[in-house]
Every structure is written in C-alpha cells, then in structure tokens.
Amino acid sequence: MKTVDKPSKASDTKIAGKQELKDKPQTASFAAERQEIIKKFPVKANLEDYEKAYATFSWDEAKKEISYFAGGKLNAAYNAVDRHMNDGRRNKVALYSVDSNNNISKFTFQDIYLLSNRMGNALKSLGVQKGDRVFVFLPRIPELYVSTIAIAKIGAVAGPLFSAFGPDALRDRLADSQAKVIITTPDLKAKLDEIRSELPDLEHVIVVGANTGKLGKQELSYEALMASASDQLKPAAMDAEDPLYLLYTSGTTGKPKGVVHVHNDILGHHMTTKWVLDLKDDDIYWCTADPGWVTGTVYGIFGPWSNGASVVTYEGRFDADSWYNVLDELQVTVWYTAPTALRMLMKAGDDVVFRHSLKTVRHICSVGEPLNPEVVRWGMKVYGLPIHDNWWQTETGMQLISNLPCMPVKPGSMGKPLPGVVAAVVDDNGDELEPGQLGRLVVKPGWPSELRHIWRNEEKHKEYYRIPGWYFSGDNAWTDEDGYFWFVGRADDVINTAGHRVGPFEVESALVEHPSVAEAGVIGKPDKERGEIIKAFIVLSNNVKSSDSLIEEIKDFTKRKLAAHAYPREIEIRDSLPKTRSGKIMRRLLKAWELGLPTGDTSSLEED
Ligand code: PRX
What we know:
This protein folds into 2 domains: 416 residues, 3-Layer(aba) Sandwich (Rossmann fold), CATH 3.40.50.12780; 103 residues, GMP Synthetase, Chain A, domain 3, CATH 3.30.300. The strands form 6 sheets. A 9-stranded mixed beta sheet has the order 2-1-11-10-12-13-14-15-16. The chain is 30% helix and 21% strand. By secondary structure, the protein is α/β, with parallel strands linked by helices. α5 packs across α6, α5 crosses α9 and α10 packs across α11. The chain is globular and about 70 Å long. Bound molecules: adenosine-5'-monophosphate-propyl ester. Adenosine-5'-monophosphate-propyl ester binds next to α11, β14, β20 and β21.
C-alpha cells in the first residue's frame, strides 16, 4: 500500500505567509494549463457507474468495509484510527495541522492512536463512563481531533462545540445535555466561566495549554492528564445503536435541539466519503468546515479517517491568500468547502488565484447552502474544475444528495440521491410530485446515519416524520427530468447565514435580554455573499430613545451572548411588531415587509 509520509514540496515547519507569495503573472491560459495538468491525474472515480450502483447497492453488503467486533459490536473511533495500525497505514500522516502562525505539525495514524488512547484513559480515570456527555470546545488544533476520537473510543458521547459560541449558546447546550466534562483552552474557558454556576452536572473542565498555577476548582491540565495516562486502551465495543455524538442545531422554534447520532453512522460516513469526496490513498484532503459543525465532525474526522486519508486542518481565519497557500503548500488534492467561502474567493478575484499554483487540487466539493451557478462557472474558469455541490443536514448525519464525480455537474443543482438513499419531492400528504413541481424535500427513513433521537425531546424527534412514510428535511425543492434535485428554500423560518444554521428564536431571546429591547422579531434577509444575513425588527422599551450607538450596542450584546455569526447585522426599530392573536410574532410578515412582497392574509393580526 502506498503511504504518504509528507508532502514532498511542503516546508517541514511553516507555510508561506502573504509576503512570501511567489509572483506568478496572471495568465489567461491558466485554466487551460490546469486542464492539461488535471488530465494527468489518476481520476478514475471510486464510484464509476451511478445507475448500476443505485440499482444494486445495499447497506448490508457495504458493512464489509467496516470493522466489527464479535457479536456485531463496533466502534466508530476504532474504524477511524485503530484499524490503521494493521492495514499498512500506521506511519501514514493522518493529520497535517496548520496553526494560526502557519506552523505545520504532522501526526501519523499511530500518533493519533496513542494520543487518543491516553486521553481515553485520562477520561476514564475521571470517572467518565459509556453514555456520558463530554464536550469539545476547542479551536481547530490537534487536541480537538485527539479528544473527539478518545471520547468515542471509550463509548462516551462527543459533543462538538463551535469555538465562536458565546456564554448563552454554551449554557443552552451544556445544560440540556447534562454534560459531565468539557475540554477547552484558557481563552475559551473565560466564556464558560460566566455560566459555570448554572451547570450543576459539569464535573470537570480539562484545559489545553493551561498555566497550571491558574487552574481553579474542578479544572485539570490536559497535558498533565496525558502525561500520567497509559497509551494502551481497548476500545469500547458498542452496539450499533449506541450514541456516538450529540450535536445541537437550530430549529424554527425553541432552543437548539440535540441531534443524537450513533456508532452505526460510521457506515454512512465511510461510504459517502468514498463516493462523494472520492478519497484515494494518496489524497491529501482539506475540509474547511470547523468540527464544531456537522461537516467538520463527519467529513473532517470520521469519514476521511475511516478511509485512511491524510486530513489537513487550518486553525487560521479565512482569507484568500492564506487559503490558497494551504492548498499549495500542503499539496491538497481534494477540497471540501462551502458556498460563502467560494463566493468570498470569487470576490477576492482571479489574480490571487493565478498567483498560486493549485496544481495538485483535483476534486472540489461544496455544502451547506445554495451554490450559485455563477460560482460553479467561475470555478471552471479559474480552477479548471467543476465544484460538486451536495446536500445533507445535521440530522441526516451524512451526504444524501450529490453531484458525483462520475456524473455531469448541473450548476445550481444539488445532484442526485446517493446509492442506498431514496429522496423525493412530495406534497404535504407524502405523495410524490412530478418533475418541475415545487414541494417538500423528503427522504425514505433507514439510511445508516439518520438521527436517532432529539436529546430528551421525543416530541421534536417525531416532528421530522410528520409526512407519512418520509423523513421531512424542512427544505423545499423540485426535481428535473434527469432526477437532479434543485433547492428552493427552507419551508420554515430557519436562517442560513454563511452556511451557519441559526434559529430566529435564539436571536430573539438574546435580543430581548437587552434592557432597551421590549420585543424582537428576526428573519433571514437575502445577501449576495452570505446567502442570508440576520435582520432584527425590534421595539424599544418605554422611554428608550433610538440612536446609532444603541443599535451598535445591541448588536454587540447579541454577538457576545450567542456567537459572532449569530447576531443581527441589521436592526430596524418599529413602534410595534405584527402578531397572531395568540401573541406569536409573524416572521412571515416581517419577511414580506423586508422583501416588498404582498403580505397576504393578515386577518389574524393583532395590529398591522
Ligand atoms: O437548508 C439546507 C441547507 O442547510 C441545511 C442544513 O444545515 P445544517 O444542519 O447546518 O447542515 C449543513 C451541512 C450539512 C439544509 O436543510 N443546505 C445544506 N446543503 C445545501 C443546503 N442548501 C442548498 N444547497 C445545499 N447543497
């Protein structure tokens, strides 16, 4: 088996900073040159014949790709890491980690195996048992990857948390899940400290890179725990239906809901990574999503590692130069990113592309929000490659619909259902609609990584199955004559801003906590770059006067409480908000106002 020790051209310790960019003159023939380069790639797709695979594939048969213990037990972390100790990949690089100063560190599968064994033993020594919730609140550093694998390995439930979350977002998730342990850094811990007293179930805070002199009660040093733990650990043999991870996501009403995924998911992670991301043994793969979101957990950790791929992670923030540098210096071959990032790259211009080589990139995928056809066409021009859009959700746990490498990409379409997946567009009774008709995007239940529960909320779980015979995604779509699916929009009020799913209720709740805000209604407003931005309509408290500085203060207040992506970029002050007779703010009407659309039936309005 071919293993990759390190990228042959990358400097060992650091990637180029902006100032070191080689000045490659812009050339109109760049895309043509790339086409020539691409022809030389061994690009035989892992899935070569979609129609045949769709007709014959069975999930039961695919189980042979997954390693099981006696009695049908398994462990997703064993599949992602431990099994590579004996399949020729032991010394292959599992993780290229680029920190915020552009320093690269490399970890082989054996490194991750031993480190996660240590962390697993450390967690056990703290009393963590199967089923306990352990949350990971870390930037994109190697400890995030090690911790997630360690938690899964001992049968605890991993709780990914986006490092930009503020205290309110943290409290909602940690309190609802009754988290026992959280792993974080000194900087991020400051946000946790604000709400710590509201988390009676949280027993331990493990701090990466702590100044041990400064650790408080129930706080432990990650490094000290690792130093005293054994690097030998038997992974827990789990039932296929035992929980693997718990990821909170937003709905239209109420607080974020905890989507429960199980160890059986690894079957879906493994196969879809193989088909959609098309990973081969000599690929170097970069998923730009943060593992605090589902894409970063499933396709940044479990899926690629189960396939034995070398994964790149980049701690730094987005900027076009830095991203292209990562692609070049690490010789990335497969790149999984998101529409907002691609739109920002497009805005950064063609020149910056042409000043890089990007000559190793052979496959590009995108997920999370609608991918404009214009961006796909631009991608063809500057990267010489089609961008493969695909569709899925936190709840679906794996890609379900995709433009696959073996099929023509239709710019603007999400692609076709994967083998083993039955998707359809139906009416509210569950009856399938003809091609071209707009309806509900639904999936036949039974794919391996389908959500199993909503944590402590069976009622919310049932809501996904309200259309008879189907799982309802909450999205509206249509299909064309060739069976491609086209996204139209959400059927509910959920906002998708820069690929981040935000519940209007969470933002409204944060807004009304500000003493100057009496009422708030929140909608997604179409935005060229971010897909949508969050817009709030507010009513000020009695005797409060509007001012620019007050509006800025309210924005900051929300941003600090929730997260940098979850605050209203626009706030409009109104004397009153439209409500139903039962007092619910009518977001539909707010949206119609914003878009200048007809307001429809307003008979239930308290006032208009
Ligand atoms: O509305 C759809 C949109 O993102 C939602 C799922 O968000 P989340 O659970 O955060 O997962 C995102 C990453 C898997 C969907 O209900 N969405 C996802 N992919 C696409 C999309 N909208 C349009 N096109 C897509 N390819």
